[in-house]
Amino acid sequence: MHECFKVEIADRIAHVVLNRPDKRNSMNLQFWDELPAIIEDIDANSKARVIVISSTGPHFTAGIDVSVFGQNDEMLAVGSDDDLAKRQHGARFYDTVTRLQNSFSCMESCRIPVLVAIQGGCIGGGVDLVTACDMRYATEDAFLTIFETNIGMTADVGTFPRLVKLVPEGFVREMAYTGRQVTASEAQAVGLVNRVYPDHASMLAGVMEIAREIASKAPLAIHGCKRMITYARDHNTADGLDYIAAWNASMLSVDEIREAMLASKQRREGRFAELPSKRQRSS
After folding, report:
1. pTM score > 0.70 for this model?
2. Based on the domain organization, do 180 and 234 belong to the same domain?
3. β-strands 182-183, 135-139: how paired?
């Protein structure tokens, strides 16, 4: 059981639901441990071919819960009367922020696609979360805001490194400098979200349909696509071309290609190899 999430796996799709609607799905201390544990378990044990993240209540998430600040002085740069503790502050803060960053980076580094469905407010840390996903979908009433600016800080859990690779730099700067709410229609216009739906129910139905289509494809091929797209984003063209050549030299499966073509011809579901389970790290 999880405090912050509900997890359901069916039809090769893992549905991970933020489940604290009474707290506007704010990100408390447990959130930062539970999310990576859930994602890594699904990926490492090949429990699904696609992950869909959605939320409950009127808002996707209100961002970082204030309780996190109260229980982690280093996150607010709170000083100390102890001179040695003051000197440690920077290292402590760095360690805390990298831990939070890793809680979202796991979605980018996992082998399977992660789709996210956004309703209502996606505030502060919510933007960090959704930019780490493969695809984003939203309801008409959804909005995103880099709220950290409004409380006197610079977003540091992943927003800027990823957002500038998703939308025009000038738009990122406007979002960051103003801290204003960006509507779903604006987000779609600049490519931040893939599609906008009238309401939460139609969004979930639409996203699940996309997830089912992805889940029908060869998992090894989808894994390769995700790796190549992420690599190409972070490297120059020559490096990307070399990497895909090396990848397919070792990973291309003629049997998977043959099965995909045969399944299409016979209009049936493909019998594809699943991703192998990952080796567990020794304690």
Report:
1. yes
2. no
3. unpaired
